[in-house]
Amino acid sequence: MQAFKIPESVLVVIHTADLQVLLIERADNPGFWQSVTGSRDAADEPFGFAAMREVMEETGISATADRFVDWGVSNIYEIYPAWRQRYATGVTHNTERVFSLCVPTGTAVVLSPREHTAYRWLSWLEAADLCFSPSNAEAVLMLPKFSPSASA
Predict the structure, then answer these.
(1) Residue pLDDT, tens place only, 93-127
(2) Where are the domains of the chain?
(3) What top-level class would CATH report for the domain 8-146?
(4) Which of 104, 107, 114, 152 is most buried, judged by most C-beta within 10 A?
(5) Which of 34, 55, 37, 40 is nearest to 110 (CA)?
(6) Can you give the C-alpha Rg of the chain in angstroms?
């Protein structure tokens, strides 16, 4: 029996204090740049734990729960048809919970080559323009509101 993805995920905007945003390029879609994203592994997995796990899996960045900011924002969007086979029959929408994580400038990034092929640090405005996902771009544009250290 195939284990389907749970249509509930996290989006984590990783940034520095001066609002440089980390974007990663998808291995399965070259040219598709995004923040860290990923589905919950189980229906009872807390969103905060999923955020920590996905950041570690996709970037190699280890951070404790207290460093993540849960924005209290959820986006509901239609799953791209090309990716719907990953979900149970009839599932067409995903609910995404938004978090941010402030890291020191120069934080090392170690990508999971199965998922991503490249990364870039960009100003928050440049990053928003490069995001392929509208909800990801919107989250990056909201970053100054959720980053107490922002001077944008």
Answers:
(1) 999 999 999 999 999 999 999 999 999 999 999 99
(2) 8-146
(3) alpha beta
(4) 107
(5) 55
(6) 15
SS3 for the chain is: CCCCCCCEEEEEEEECCCCEEEEEEECCCCCCEECEEEECCCCCCCHHHHHHHHHHHHHCCCCCHHHEEEEEEEEEEECCHHHHHHCCCCCCEEEEEEEEEECCCCCCCCCCCCCEEEEEEEEHHHHHHHECCHHHHHHHHHHHHHCCCCCC
Q: What is the pTM of this model?
A: 0.93
User: Measuring CA to CA, which residue among 24, 65, 22 is closest to residue 46?
Assistant: 65
Q: Cα 139 to the chain's mean position, in Å? A: 10
